[in-house]
Design a protein that fits this description.
Layout: H1 3-22, H2 43-62, H3 88-98, H4 103-131, H5 139-160, H6 166-180, H7 185-194, H8 199-232, H9 250-255, H10 259-284, H11 310-315, H12 323-338, H13 340-343, H14 355-377, H15 385-425
């Protein structure tokens, strides 16, 4: 018996004893198939790991942070000139970086952890989009996940202002103006966001939303998303078979790998790797605190949001695009993503069988990347329609051509194989009535590359 087999059997035996004595099977997460032990199947778990660290690090930062715009001499009075004008929110952030043990690492890792969580969330979203995990019976799981992404973006937006730097203040004001331009909801959001119209009112509302309101929404949606995942199990591999089952039977469940200890340790391995990389980046490239709101040295600060909102920030720079149009466009994208399960009604999940939606998803990804880079390179510079067409047109055209050729080649190849198979199956002078162009319903064995 090899060492690994002996280890696994011993671990199963020990954990079987623990489960028997604690009845843990009744509340532990469900087993999963062996084919899912690949990082691409657990992008959602990586997001959950990032979320857990954000909660822990954020709670530690709350021990020192003061959500106040009042001038203070505390913490930064002996280090920063003109300390009587420095707001307490900025000074408490300065104190965390320079006076709290490991405070710079804590704050930097919390900030970079937020970036990593958003990146992993986008990765999780597009992975699910391409392999069609939103299809029946997982429509509501997709919709809840979309709302989770929106709330997470809201967490990033509200947290950006908390250090109370001039850069964050300017960018938040731009975001507030865009939010107030929302039809119907804008006037209702005004008093909720702006409070009494002062800087303290805005900071207090952002703090309350970041620490209380949005985390509650995030917790509720995360619980719903996890419950739906437990109900349906992990999605099978993408396939061209329209008759593929999307749920596992009770017999298959018993043959799957238990969550504890196998899946738990598998996820823990990636979680430790994530924390190691995060701490390494935060230690090597710690975040530098910009100047505070009201400092005369901040006159030349360029208004620029964080990277995940640069695409919307740049969209407003397009000639002819007003804040109302920009909000309308972003709302249309959100509605498309939210109701995608009811727009793509095909029962096939493989990307080659969904050319229209694959093009739309790829074009959306290209749009976000190009706009983000564009917004970072030329913030606040107005863009003429000719330059817009020259920049965005070619990538979209190449994507449409590539997706179209990919789908056409697949369909042509499939028809040739189907015709050859029919000619071998039917003998005699009477050939089958169906022609290769009749698009018969494929099965898992007829379609190449199906799982």
């Amino acid at each position: 018996m090899s060492v690994s087999n002996w280890y696994n059997r011993s671990l199963n035996k020990i954990w079987g004893f623990v489960e028997d004595r604690t009845a843990m099977k009744r509340w532990a997460l469900r087993p999963q198939p062996e084919f899912s032990f690949k990082p691409s199947y657990w992008t959602g778990a990586f997001v959950a790991v990032a979320l857990v660290y954000q909660v822990i690090s954020g709670a530690l930062l709350l021990l020192y942070y003061q959500p106040s715009t009042n001038p203070t001499l505390t913490a930064c009075g002996q280090t920063v000139g003109s300390a009587s004008t420095a707001p307490a929110a900025w000074c408490s952030t300065f104190y965390i970086i320079h006076s709290v043990p490991m405070g710079e690492l804590l704050l930097s890792s919390h900030l970079y952890g937020a970036y990593a969580m958003l990146f992993l969330l986008f990765l999780h979203f597009f992975r699910g989009y391409y392999v069609g995990v939103y299809k029946s019976p997982r429509e509501f799981s997709w919709m809840v996940g979309t709302l989770l992404m929106v709330v997470t973006l809201g967490m990033g937006f509200t947290g950006y202002l908390l250090p109370y730097t001039q850069l964050a203040y300017n960018a938040t004001n731009v975001g507030v103006v865009l939010a107030l331009r929302l039809p119907t909801f804008g006037p209702l959001l005004g008093p909720l966001i702006l409070s009494d119209g002062t800087g303290q009112g805005l900071l207090s509302r952002m703090f309350d939303a970041h620490v209380v309101l949005l985390p509650l929404a995030l917790a509720g949606l995360f619980y719903a998303h996890l419950s739906l995942f437990e109900s349906h199990g992990i999605a099978p591999p993408a396939t061209s078979d329209p008759l593929q089952r999307r749920r596992f039977t009770d017999r298959e469940e018993k043959e799957h790998v238990p969550f504890i200890p196998h899946i738990f340790f598998y996820t823990l391995k990636w979680a430790l790797l994530y924390l190691g990389v995060l701490f390494g980046i935060a230690a090597l490239w710690p975040w530098t605190l910009p100047t505070y709101v009201g400092n005369t040295a901040a006159v030349g600060v360029v208004t620029e949001p964080d990277w995940y909102f640069l695409w919307l920030f740049k969209l407003v720079d397009f000639q002819g695009v007003t804040p109302v149009i920009a909000i309308g466009a972003s709302s249309a994208i959100l509605v498309y993503i939210l109701f995608l399960p009811f727009l793509d009604r095909s029962k096939r999940t493989h990307p080659r069988d969904r050319p229209v939606f694959i093009f739309l998803g790829t074009a959306l990804l290209e749009f976000f990347i190009l706009m983000t880079v564009w917004g970072g390179e030329t913030p606040g510079v107005q863009i003429l329609p000719v330059l817009i067409a020259e920049t965005l047109g070619p990538p979209f055209a190449v994507t449409a051509l590539a997706v179209g050729l990919f789908h056409w080649r697949y369909r042509a190849s499939y028809r040739r194989r189907l015709a050859a198979r029919q000619s071998q199956t039917f003998a005699g002078p009477y050939p089958p009535a169906a022609s290769p162009s009749a698009h018969p319903t494929p099965t898992a064995t007829e379609v190449p590359g199906s799982e």
